[in-house]
Each structure stands twice: as structure tokens, then as C-alpha cells.
Amino acid sequence: MGRSPCCEKAHTNKGAWTKEEDQRLVNYIRLHGEGCWRSLPTSAGLLRCGKSCRLRWINYLRPDLKRGNFTEDEDELIIKLHSLLGNKWSLIAARLPGRTDNEIKNYWNTHIKRKLISRGLDPQNHRPFDSTAATPTASAIAITSLDFRKNTSNSTVPSKILPSQSLVPLQNNQLNSIYKFKTESLEEGNCSSSTTEETQEYFRKEQNKPVLDLELSIGLPMTRTDQKTESVWPELRTVKPPTQAAPRMCLCWQLGFQNKAGEFCSNCRSTTAFYSYC
DNA sequence: AAATCACTCAACCGCTATAAG
DNA sequence: ACTTATAGCGGTTGAGTGATT
């Protein structure tokens, strides 16, 4: 015995919403608030499933939605956040007030991917395309061929490609899921041998900008299990915080700008090599 | 003017984690 | 303990629209 079904799927509308449906949904939520999507369609007199109502409200009808084009600042923030979070659109949207995950996802696929490719960067990993290693990802190739096919002779994709930061698995087989980035020359800014002037200029500009720091840290007190695990996998020491730094559970999501000295703001000073605590 | 192409974005689909019965 | 629905997410689709041929 489980729950009863959320709606009569045979009697629900699909496709584009009408103005009347929108109005009904808005009126209902104004009166009763969000939530309980299961019962909402019946209560609001809508022939839609709750899932569809929720999506329509979140992505289109919510009054706090920001309309209009994305600004340059928003573009850059999305790029930064995507480089840190990947395709976690809801997390990215949480950092852009008034924007929805769906909107950002669409914008990414239609604009930003192209923008990164034009900078010579792989949109999947934000690293320069590597002509010697594998190749750009399939999606990047698809976009490149799709979007520049009308202008191949004048493509903005750099013809030469940067050596990339490579993703190196740690030695221990038991730690295959833990990776570290082997940072090559980009940090020192000597990525010059195989870049176009445009790409070099981009990195010069990027290095002069304040560093956006987005750090999600979840730490748990060291338990007996941890200690036992550590004895089996001593390499975990390299990725775990010092035991004394985690006397209690800590959850800290930090968004901020570092100054030139690499320090965080006074409210978010880093106390260890691994974590920052607010 | 008509046909075709390219792009955008709202909406749907399928999946997972969690809650409810 | 198990089954089933819900909420929420990311990926994909396709209708609508504007640009190009």
C-alpha cells in the first residue's frame, strides 16, 4: 500500500500553457502559497499534473524572476560557477537571484558554450583544447561544427591549442574516485608556446581579475570508523582535514573574492589549508 | 514570396532520493 | 521492511520565430 496517485494522467493537458491556466495557477498560489503540488491542480481547477504546475510556476510565473538578457557579469559568474560545480544548474541558479536553473541551462547551451569555444576553451572542463592529447569533447566538437560551419574560414576558434591541465588519478587504486588537478604552466602564466594572441590575452585578463572563490566544505568529526578507514587507506590523510580542525560538524559554503595576498574577507578567513570557517 | 535553415526556450521525459502509507 | 508517490534535478525535444537563400 503506497500513496494514491498524484493525478489522473489520462485527463491532463500537455503542451503550452494558456493565459487562463497561468492566471488560475498564479491566483491559487497567491492565496495558498507554494507547495503540495499533488493537490494543487484539482484545488486550482487545472487539468494539469502537479509536476507541470510546479515547473510552470518555478520557471515562468514566479514574481521574483528576472526578465531580460543576461549581463556580462552574469555570464562570467555562470562560467566561474560552472567550472566549479559542473552541470549543477540548480546550484548555479541559487547564486543568480531571479534566474532559474532551466533558464541558465538553456543560456549555457545556446550562448556560453559558444563563447568558451571562441576563447579556445573546452566548455566541459574549462581548459584549453589540447591538440596533442585526446581532443575536445564530443559536445564541443558538435558545437564547433554546428555553429561555425557557416564561417569556417573566419572561425574564432584558435587554430593552435593550449597544453591542458591534466586530470591525474591518485596512485592508490582504492582512491580512483578521488582526483587531483596537476596544474601545469597556467599558474605561472607561461602558457605561451601554443596559444593564439587572443587566448593569451584572455588569460592575461583573467589573471588580473579578483579570484572568485567558491568553496563547499563538509567535514565530519573523526569517528572510529574514520580512524579505521585511515589505517587502511593512509593516503586519505592527503584529502582529509586535520583531526583537530573538525571537532564538530562543519558545513560552509563560501562565495567571495580573494585579495592579492590570497586572503579571504574578515568574516571568512581560512584557518586551515583545506577549509574556511565562517 | 516561398522554402529552407538556424536558433531559442518552454515544456516534457526519465531518473534519483526521500517521504508517506 | 516494503511499496509507491512526490519533489526535484539534468537532459532532451520540438514548436515557434527570425534569418537566409
Low-confidence spans: pLDDT under 50, at least 5 residues?
1-6, 131-199, 210-278
Order of helices and strands: HHHHHHHEEHEHE
| Proportion in helices | 25-40%
- The end-to-end span amounts to 46 Å
User: In what range is the share of β-strand residues?
Assistant: 5-15%
Give me the Rg, rounded.
24 Å
Main sheet overview? 2 strands, antiparallel
Description:
The strands form two sheets. The chain has a two-stranded antiparallel sheet. The chain has a two-stranded antiparallel ribbon with strand order 3-4. The chain starts with 18 loop residues before the first helix and ends in a 20-residue tail after the last strand. Among the domains are: 9-61, Arc Repressor Mutant, subunit A (Orthogonal Bundle); 210-278, no CATH class. With 278 residues, it is of the alpha+beta class. It has helices at 19-32, 40-44, 50-61, 72-85, 89-94, 101-118, 138-147, 197-208, 224-232, and strands at residues 166-169, 179-182, 211-219, 250-258. Helices cover 36% and strands 9% of the residues. Mean pLDDT is 59; it is low at 1-6, 131-199 and 210-278. The radius of gyration is 24 Å and the shape is elongated. It binds a DNA duplex (21 and 21 nucleotides) through helix 3 and helix 6. It is found in: Nucleus. GO terms for molecular function: transcription cis-regulatory region binding. Keywords: DNA-binding, Nucleus, Repeat, Transcription, Transcription regulation.
